[in-house]
Design a protein that fits this description.
Blueprint lengths: L20 E3 L1 E4 L10 E10 L3 E8 L4 E8 L4 E11 L10 E5 L6 E10 L3
Amino acid sequence: MQHAIKMWMVQPGKHFDYIARTGKKMGFDIDDRWYGQGRDVAIKVTYIDQTAGSMKLVFNGGTKAKSEQLLGDGKLKTVTFMVADLVQNSMAHDFDFTLESGNDKTDIVVSMVRVVATAK
């Protein structure tokens, strides 16, 4: 991703460091004090579409997933996943959901994740 100014505090080649994280799988845990069992949520993921393929949102113990197609065009994008009855702490390491690359050979680049409670 291009930056308007030289980011002296970031390692060379790591310009995404303060705006995104990259990996094949990332886990997320919603604070249990805010989140109730079986709640409907909108999970908004802002990502850099760096590689063609797909990004999967996996939840409810890994039994359910939603997917977003990636084009690899380098643009910053946002997708909203509507999730009904999200079961808290149902994934490994007590994660509520994970974001995963749809391909073992490519990483996804995630900039920000927001969870919004929706009305039932």
